Every structure is written in structure tokens, then in C-alpha cells.
């Protein structure tokens, strides 16, 4: 059983779920700060020096999109090695990075076996596949296999075999390359539309990655009210305030772009721009 653990700044719904899983994990949880360089490791260590596990999404923090900077990755690994704590690396959206060189996964930098690397095929393939995987230190494999058997004794062998063949034959790598090109073009279309119609209203972070992005709004604008008004017009976005345990902070909207045709996206941005201007 864990005695304490720390997680990145996360949505209240997830946070409340974590805090109340006392039957599974006996723990005190700390919700730690995220900035443009990802998890603030120094603040996290100071806030929870006795933490036994840290949950982190270094490749693409949700919902800000921040990538955990390399010095912070090393700091986190050094702390885990020194204290014997575990780092739970949620490899969220790492496959979809559209600019710059990839940053190595925490697991690839870990020389002491303190990282538990978890990922899913739910976004790169399709959610109904319901397949994920864990990359574990050898000494933990037997324990995790036993725990997995107690949770679900019958994962789909057919789905696993099909996915394994898809991987080994090189189809998955080709599929990812095609999807990266497609989603990169749609991200660029969103960026151009925002620049054309709302450059004086919003700030788009320079994080071309993932399947959605956050846009920051002018101070004082109610992002929840903006999201509700957009929903009335058939445009669904998420207010950034919904992802905070404490609602105070800079307003923003999380915009999905991966499933949008560029022309439809441009129309939606025009509507959003007019609505935001009317709210100022």
C-alpha cells in the first residue's frame, strides 16, 4: 500500500476519484502545479517530500499540452532514485508531436528502475479496442500480472494477437506517420484560423502536439460562460477552469482539432471570435 502520492494538476472529477479510492490505495494525495515546462518538480517535492508515487504526463500534459522539460525529468528521476519512490509515467499523446525533436520518455532515461510506463492504443487506433500496456521493471512484472488477473482474467486474446501482428508487420508505424501528417495539417489550419480571426483575443501556446490545444483568453473573461454559449451554437469546447481543483487562474478554452475539416473549423473559429468579442 502507498502512504502518499503526488499527481499533476488534474480535473476535479479525476482528483476526487483518486482521493476516495481508499479501498485500493491507502494514501494522502497532493495535487501539484503545472506550468509551461510541465510538472513543477521542485514544488512537488517540497509539498510532498514523503510521497511514494508521482503520476505525471511528461509527453503532453492534459489539458495544457505542456511538455515536461528535460532538466525537470532528470530532477524527478534523481528524486525517485534517492527516495525509492515510483514514477507513474502516463504516456499520453506522445505519438502526436508535430514539430521539434522528440524528448525521450522518462522510462528511457531511468537507470534505476523506478518508472512505471503506461500507454494505450485507444487514441492511436480506436477506443473500442480497449488495449493498453505497461512497461515495468523486471522485479515488478510478476506482481502486476497477478493483480491484472484478479481484475480481469479474460482480456481479448484475439484483439491482442491482431494488434501484435499489426505492430510486427510495420503497419502501426506507417499508420502513425499518416495520422501525424493529417493531424499536423489540421493543427496548422486551426492556428491559421485563430491568427486570422482572433489574434487579438487569444494566445495559442507553441506546443504543436496532441489532438487538442488550449487557447488562453483575456483576463476577466468567464471561460465557462463562453463554453456554454458556444455549446448553444453547436460548438463544443472545454473551459480550462473545469480542469482546476481551484477555479482561480487564467481563463482558457480547450479546442479539439483532430476530427475537424479545416473549412468547418474556420467557420467555428469565426463564431467563437464573434462570441468572445461580445463578452468583453
Instruction: Write down the secondary-structure element order.
Output: EHEEEHEHEHEEHHHEHEEH
- The level 1 CATH classification of the largest domain is Alpha Beta
Give the number of domains: 2
Strand order, biggest sheet?
Answer: 2-1-5-6-7-8
Radius of gyration from CA coordinates = 20 Å
CATH topology of the largest domain: Aspartate Aminotransferase, domain 2
Q: What would you call the structural class?
A: alpha/beta
Our measurement of the CA-to-CA distance between the termini, rounded to an integer number of angstroms, reads 50 Å
State the fourth-level CATH superfamily of the largest domain.
Type I PLP-dependent aspartate aminotransferase-like (Major domain)
- Outline the low-pLDDT stretches: 1-6, 21-29
Mean pLDDT: 86
Concise synopsis of the structure shown:
The chain has 280 residues and is α/β, with parallel strands linked by helices. It is 41% helix and 16% strand. Helix 7 (171-198) runs parallel beside helix 9 (262-279).
Strand-helix topology:
Blueprint (H helix, E strand, L loop, with lengths): L3 E5 L3 H8 L8 E5 L1 E2 L2 E2 L1 H7 L5 E4 L13 H14 L2 E5 L15 H4 L5 E6 L11 E4 L2 H14 L5 H12 L2 H28 L13 E5 L6 H10 L5 E2 L12 E5 L5 H18 L1
Parallel strand pairs: 1-2, 1-5, 5-6, 6-7
Antiparallel strand pairs: 3-4, 7-8, 9-11, 10-11
Helix pairs in contact: 7-9
Amino acid at each position: 500500500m502507498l502512504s502518499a502520492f503526488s499527481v499533476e494538476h488534474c480535473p476535479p472529477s479525476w482528483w476526487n476519484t483518486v482521493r476516495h479510492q481508499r479501498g485500493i490505495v491507502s494514501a494522502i494525495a497532493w495535487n501539484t502545479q503545472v506550468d509551461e515546462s510541465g510538472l513543477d518538480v521542485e514544488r512537488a517535492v517540497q509539498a510532498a517530500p514523503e510521497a511514494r508515487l508521482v503520476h505525471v504526463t511528461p509527453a503532453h500534459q492534459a489539458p495544457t499540452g505542456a511538455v515536461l522539460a528535460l532538466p525537470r525529468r532528470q530532477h524527478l528521476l534523481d528524486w525517485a532514485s534517492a527516495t525509492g519512490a515510483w514514477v507513474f509515467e502516463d504516456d499520453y499523446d506522445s505519438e502526436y508531436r508535430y514539430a521539434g525533436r522528440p524528448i525521450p520518455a522518462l522510462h528511457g532515461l531511468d537507470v534505476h528502475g523506478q518508472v512505471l510506463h503506461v500507454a494505450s492504443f485507444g487514441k492511436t487506433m480506436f477506443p473500442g479496442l480497449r488495449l493498453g500496456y505497461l512497461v515495468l521493471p523486471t522485479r515488478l512484472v510478476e506482481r502486476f500480472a497477478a493483480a491484472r488477473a484478479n481484475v480481469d482474467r479474460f482480456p481479448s486474446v484475439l484483439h491482442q494477437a491482431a494488434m501484435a501482428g499489426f505492430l510486427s508487420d510495420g503497419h502501426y508505424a506507417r499508420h502513425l506517420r499518416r495520422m501525424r501528417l493529417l493531424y499536423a495539417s489540421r493543427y496548422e489550419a486551426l492556428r491559421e484560423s485563430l491568427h486570422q480571426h482572433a489574434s487579438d483575443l487569444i494566445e495559442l501556446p507553441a506546443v504543436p502536439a496532441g489532438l487538442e490545444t488550449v487557447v488562453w483568453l483575456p483576463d476577466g473573461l468567464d471561460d465557462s460562460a463562453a463554453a456554454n454559449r458556444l455549446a448553444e451554437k453547436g460548438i463544443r469546447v472545454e473551459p480550462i477552469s473545469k480542469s482546476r481543483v481551484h477555479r482561480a487562474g487564467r481563463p482558457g478554452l480547450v479546442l479539439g482539432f483532430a476530427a475537424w475539416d479545416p473549412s468547418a473549423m474556420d467557420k467555428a473559429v469565426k463564431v467563437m471570435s464573434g462570441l468572445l468579442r461580445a463578452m468583453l
